[in-house]
Design a protein that fits this description.
With about 575 residues, the protein is mainly alpha-helical. About 70% of the residues lie in helices and about 0% in strands. It is globular, with a radius of gyration of 31 Å.
Length: about 575
DNA sequence: GTAGGGTTAG
């Protein structure tokens, strides 16, 4: 027997296998989107595609593989689809983010005289979350078909109205319900929390016979979001039962309020209390470490996730990438990034921002290309990173190309940050007029960052004329920022215009503006963070630091670095 | 006989 006959006999064999397998088993065993086609073929062959029970199962399977097209076409072949078939497909459209199509199918269902069930409306309310009028029509139908007292449907309606910010409507639904369960109460409390109305949220929560954990959690989250950490803390202490969401909400809340140390300490307390954290907790903690720049703790937390078998999901993944790159460990960030089993937009943004921050502009640009190849659509944040990197590296053409592709290929509208990047890119490259033109083309008012970038470019390229224009604007926007004065003073001094120097100095004095307070950097040694400023001699720890610094300067000089002393006045 | 549906942490 040659190879060809072996294959064809195998084929025959597998076909008959398919035919003999009970159809339900065949559908349930579909482990890939392709197998759905053979399952359907088998059903059509035996006319089982007319069976509503099987079709319901089949459509559900299609939905899980995102093959809603196949589900629809197979349903169209049916002579008498029943409510189960319609419901499966309506739900399928919602799951596949095609809400309008689910509504169209609903209309067809009514035309076919198939009576909707409560399941139909659960899906439909979800489908109408995007539009007020649609949702209201669905609500009307819910009344018309007698589901106005159905607890679960009414609860979804509360979600619907509160999502549109129509809290009074949501409350009306709540009040009109003849019976409510725990979910209903929590949903309504959560609606008030989302509306930042903690008084109403509290009042309602206190009317519950016993607050459930979800409600407590909801309130904690609300107070944290409003910056009321103390109340959140007291709720946390008061509540009788805490779950993982409670602990994670506290960690998240502290981070939200920039109290990262407390966030990390809650994490340790949680583990000491024997509560096992999950992926959400871990990514939150890692991100707190990133904000603090505490790489040692970050590593410890990273180790913890590895040792305890956490799934390296996109949240933990992007948090780790961000943490390592913010802590200066770009290599580790890259290592984590390339080993991620799944990467979403956030992971890509984290690594691109990391590369950009470390000055690897070309690599950041390459990453953008790679991400496009992997069909992840970049967003506005991605472009800010790439453009910033291009600016720092002076990659004018590349930056411009990326900027153009942002609007033409991705229809992303430039925000003020993108303009800021481009103005800086042009200014730094000496294309001062292009920068000015871009500023004038903006559809919103340029801010101080933009004029500041232009001013800085003018200093670099000695364009006093436009520097004065930028300075004038900056005097309106940020008249008390001493940096701009210093910049202009140094430019006048460079051209020996001492009278102008004196004039600007006089203005500074007149306004009582102090000299620029120096920017600071910090470094983590062991588990302590040390803060440095320019020309800082306060580190009495040892002279070694300064000796090392001298050596660094020397190496830099050897590498061809010329210190820019101009402009220091 | 079918569906697992509404609340809280990214």
């Amino acid at each position: 027997m040659n190879a060809l006959t072996t294959v064809s006999s195998l084929r025959r064999c597998s076909t008959s296998l398919l035919e003999n397998l009970p159809i339900l088993q065949l559908i349930k065993q579909c482990s890939s989107p392709k197998l759905l086609d053979s399952a359907l073929a088998a059903m059509v062959k035996t006319s089982q595609n007319q069976d509503c029970f099987f079709m319901n199962q089949f459509i559900t399977a299609c939905t899980s593989f995102n093959r809603i097209d196949l589900a629809l076409s197979s349903m169209t072949q049916m002579q008498e689809p029943n409510v189960f078939v319609y419901n499966a497909l309506i739900k399928g459209f919602v799951t596949c983010s095609l809400p309008i199509r689910s509504l169209e199918l609903y209309v067809r269902m009514l035309r076919d005289y198939v009576s909707p069930s409560s399941y139909t409306y659960s899906s439909l309310v979800k489908a109408s979350l995007f539009d007020r009028v649609v949702g209201e029509s669905v609500h009307a139908h819910i009344w018309k078909f007698g589901f106005c007292f159905h607890v679960q449907i009414q609860t979804t309606l509360i979600v619907f109205y509160s999502g549109l910010g129509r809290i009074e409507e949501a409350r009306k639904v709540f009040d009109e319900m003849p019976e409510r369960d725990e979910f209903t109460w929590t949903t309504m409390v959560s609606a008030y929390v989302r509306d930042f109305d903690m008084d109403s949220a509290n009042a309602l929560a206190n009317r519950m016979s016993e607050k459930n954990v979800a409600t407590w959690n909801c309130l904690i989250d609300g107070y944290m979001r409003l910056g009321n950490v103390e109340v959140a803390e007291s709720l946390f202490d008061q509540m009788p039962v805490k779950d993982i969401i409670t602990w994670t909400s506290m960690i998240k809340g502290y981070s939200f309020n920039k109290r990262y140390r407390e966030a990390i300490s809650v994490f340790y307390k949680m583990t000491e209390a024997g509560i096992v954290p999950d992926e959400v907790t871990m990514s939150t903690v890692i991100s707190a470490c990133a904000h603090l720049g505490v790489v040692e703790i970050g590593k410890e937390v990273h180790m913890y996730t590895v040792q305890n078998g956490f799934v390296l999901d996109v949240y933990i993944g992007s948090a780790l990438v961000d943490m390592y790159s913010k802590c200066g460990c770009l290599n580790r960030a890259l290592l984590v990034f390339f080993n991620l089993p799944e990467k979403n937009l956030f992971c890509w943004n984290a690594i691109i921002e990391g590369l950009a921050a470390h000055g690897y502009a070309r690599e950041a640009l390459r990453m953008l290309e790679k991400m496009e190849v992997e069909l992840i659509k970049p967003n506005a944040v991605t472009f800010v990173s790439v453009l910033t990197a291009s600016t720092h590296a002076g990659l004018v053409e590349e930056g411009q190309k990326v900027y153009r592709s942002m609007s033409s290929d991705y229809s992303i509208v430039s925000n003020i940050e993108h303009y800021g990047c481009m103005v800086a890119l042009f200014s730094k490259a000496g294309l001062i007029l292009e920068a000015l033109e871009l500023i004038e083309s903006m559809e919103f008012e340029p801010n101080a960052v933009i004029w500041g970038a232009l001013l800085d470019g003018c200093r670099l390229h000695k364009n006093l004329e436009i520097a004065e224009i930028a300075f004038k604007k900056l005097m309106v926007l940020e008249p008390r920022n001493s940096g701009y004065y210093s910049l202009l003073i140094s430019m006048y001094a460079g051209e020996n215009r001492w009278r102008d120097v004196a004039e600007v100095r006089g203005r500074m004095r007149g306004l009582g503006i102090e000299k620029l307070c120096p920017g600071t950097s910090w470094i983590e040694l062991g588990k302590r963070v040390h803060v440095f400023a320019a020309a800082d001699k306060s580190h009495s720890a040892s002279d070694e630091v300064y000796l090392l610094l001298d050596e660094v300067y020397e190496q830099m000089a050897l590498a061809g670095y010329v210190q820019e002393s101009e402009g220091v006045y």
